[in-house]
Design goal:
This protein has 1 helix and 6 strands, in the order E-E-H-E-E-E-E. Strand 5 and strand 6 form a beta hairpin. The longest helix is centred in the middle third of the chain and has 18 residues. The radius of gyration is 14 Å and the shape is globular. By secondary structure, the protein is mostly beta strands.
Length: 130
């Protein structure tokens, strides 16, 4: 599934490059290739460019937003907590895995993890509600 065909944003604000959704299993995966040409990277710690952590968390949020829009469910992010374990740098391909842990008619609670080369770099818990 192509995020730009579902999400109501335009590049450069779509922060995932590709995604898959397995409805029966209750999880979605997406990826983001961090490039030195991403304008968020330039100037963010100029001595060592890194991809801003808040944008990593937003990539996981956009993954679930795409699932919600695909299923025609109207919910918005109401709460999120994230733990950053290591930075993403240009050249990294970040793989997000987001699991829907509690799925109710008016609320979803999701847990997401971001990996680079199988090394965990971010973990988030997100609540979406009507």
């Amino acid at each position: 599934m192509k995020p730009e065909q579902i999400l109501p944003y335009a590049k450069p604000w779509i922060l995932i490059d590709d995604m898959q959704y397995e409805e029966s299993a209750g999880w979605a995966t997406s990826k983001k290739l961090v490039s030195s040409s991403d304008h968020y990277v330039r100037g963010h710690f100029p001595e060592q460019s890194i991809y801003p952590g808040v944008l990593l968390a937003e990539g996981m949020v956009q993954t679930i937003e795409a699932v919600l829009l695909h299923e025609k469910i109207c919910m918005k992010l109401v709460e999120a907590t994230s733990r950053f374990l290591r930075p993403a740098v240009p050249g990294d391909e970040v793989h997000f895995v987001v699991k829907i842990c509690d799925r109710q008619a008016d609320r979803w609670v999701c847990e997401g993890t971001g990996f680079v080369d199988e090394q965990q770099m971010i973990h988030s818990t997100m609540t979406f509600a009507k």
